[in-house]
Amino acid sequence: MPIVASAGQTIYAANINTIGLVGSVVSTGSNGTVTSGTTETVDAVLGTLTFTALASRTYRINLHGRGLSGSVTADRFSVKFRYTIDGSTPTASSTLADHDHAYLIGAVTGTNGVSTFSYQALIVPGAATVKVVVTTTRTVGTGTATPVGACQFWAEAI
Q1: How far from 55 is each of 13, 51, 59, 62, CA to CA, in Å?
Q2: What does pTM read for this prediction?
Q3: Which residues contact 146 (CB under 8 A, 6 or more apart)?
Q4: What are the residues facing 151 on neighbouring strands?
Q5: Kindly report the CA angle at 69 between 63 and 70, in degrees rounded to 5?
Q6: Any idea where the domains of the chain sit in the sequence?
Q7: CA 78 and chain centroid, separation
Q8: Which of 72, 111, 121, 147 could form a disulfide with 143 if both were Cys (CB 3.0 to 4.6 A apart)?
Q9: Are 136 and 77 in contact (CB under 8 A)?
Q10: For 114-135, how does the pLDDT look when each residue is reduced to its tens digit (9 = 90+)?
Q11: DSSP class of residue 132?
């Protein structure tokens, strides 16, 4: 919602940064945590995104530049955002943000077969300290996947 001010009205700094980037961007150039079969695995290497949310605001969670290096051709994986609003660190059983992102390992396994992707999801957490993690789960196949590629992970108020 844009800020509309009338002539003579005071605009405070607290009202200006209500749209756009919130918190700090989490980034890494390192490979992430290897998946464990069909167990949803938190990417502990990437880490946790933390920000303070305002009531009645929608936030877009973004992951850009990550890929999955699979051990078996044609395996399918699900990438998800999980979050908490009580300040605790999210786990694989925390609240799912919006939807997941399906990722198919191509005909080439290992890092030569990696295609990077962008993934976004929306949340309306209410006024809270929000913490978000990225998880990966194998949904089809028999192999494992390693998150690879330099990536950025951030939240923005929209």
Answers
A1: 18, 13, 11, 20
A2: 0.84
A3: 31, 32, 34, 35, 68, 69
A4: 28
A5: 125
A6: 25-157
A7: 12
A8: 72
A9: yes
A10: 778 899 999 999 999 999 999 9
A11: E
